Amino acid sequence: MNPTQSTEHARRPHFGVPAVAGAAPTVPPTRVIPARTVPAADRLPALVADVELTGALPRIAATGPDGRRAERAWLLVRLHTEPIGPVLLPVPGTGLSPADLAAAIHATLGDELRRRLPDWPAADTPADPDRALAALRASGTSAYLARRAEVLRDAPPITVVICTRERPGPLARCLDSLLGQHYPNFRVLVVDNAPTSDATRAVTAAAARSGPVDYLLAPRPGLSHARNAAVAAAPGEILAWIDDDEVADPYWLAEVARALADHPTADVISGVIVPAELETDPQLWFEEFGGHSKGRGFTPDVFSPATAHRQSPLYPLPPFGTGANMTFRPGVIERIGGFDTALGAGTPAMGSEDTLAFTRVLLAGGTIAYHPGALVRHYHRRDLAGLRTQMIGYGAGLTAAYTSLLLDRPGLLWPLLRLAPTALRDLRQPDGPRLAGLGAGFPRDLLGENRRGMLRGPLAYLRGRRRDRRQDRRDRQDRRDRQDRRDRHGRRDTPGRLRDGRAQVGSGAAT
Hints:
- Helix content is about 40%, strand content about 15%.
- The chain is of the alpha/beta class.
- Strands 7, 8, 9, 10, 11, 12, 13, 14 and 15 form a nine-stranded mixed β-sheet that branches. A four-stranded mixed β-sheet has the order 1-3-5-6, with helices on one face.
């Protein structure tokens, strides 16, 4: 861990840190980060923490670090640092005992744990994790950690890209987590998109004093423009993308490298995104809606033309990945034509440049490997207005991406129409992928905002595309004007030269 890392990055309760002989460094005590705005006076919607099974299960108090009453606990269960899955359970006034945690973990994740631990009790027997883990603790070995160590011995160079605009605080926090990576061969490229101040440059320069952090100016506004600028600036490099409102798990890049090694034909690696905090109701509601994973869960998967029969590349639910945690092999983004600049943050469509990129990779015959071990943590929108905007953006971005796809490939209209009944069913079915996780307190009007966004998406895309093309024309004209000025300036400076560069006879110029 970088010694300059902020204390904020070290506050998440991490229970039961393992002590495994010969293992890679274990997960450090990471965050439950306090509220950035005035919190609810006496309640914490959910405490967020990691629970490592190779250590003793903890007791969880009924109050959070700031003294607020914790209503729930959102626990990421890990085994030898591998994320197994989340457990969400209510916190009684007496707190949660180790036995309470054992029962909840057994009920929620028993099947996953039995795949890794033959001695884990059967579903119809009481949970006894200490007995199941006794042999494992005694052996001090882990195939998961051993494979990671093997990958790290030949770690490929990775360029981490953060596209950002006037968010110096979150950017510094994200960089802090990247400089603490347990990975030997990487650099960070910060793309400053259409800045109005020097704040991003200053944060980047400060981070560069502690590690391999570079700065790139992308003057044209829009996330896709920033992404494409990074692609152009880093040809031939593996590009791992993370958002500025996230922090990377200490093993994020090591697990990206594992997935690249284990899936040598994969064009893209996507990973899981979990909440960094659930300090407000809107943050919890977003997680109930599916968060960024939308039901993808913690089971590794591979998507390619061979898997289209079980999930169409035209229907990203659950998503194949998300732009906040995706890695592309060299040349893949260029082969699909880059990111659509009429999509993404900063456009009327508001998003889905990543969704369209994944779809284009699959339609071109490529492969996406989903590896939940590659984990980052996201700071969800803290207020209802921000969540409402996000829900609208998700809807608008999705149908805008379909609009882009159809304009490029009109022959996909009929396959999309065949998917329409499935999409409509998922929109309204209570136990479907969109609605199954919603709690009783979830504001149902947010679902209406999401659907209204879908209706707006096609026109929003066309509006953004027209705007983008007008700007393209202005940029080309500006370049021509600058070239003309340089040419005129050059002719004034060299009067002895003709326009085609030949020397004038008798001018005294060299021939």
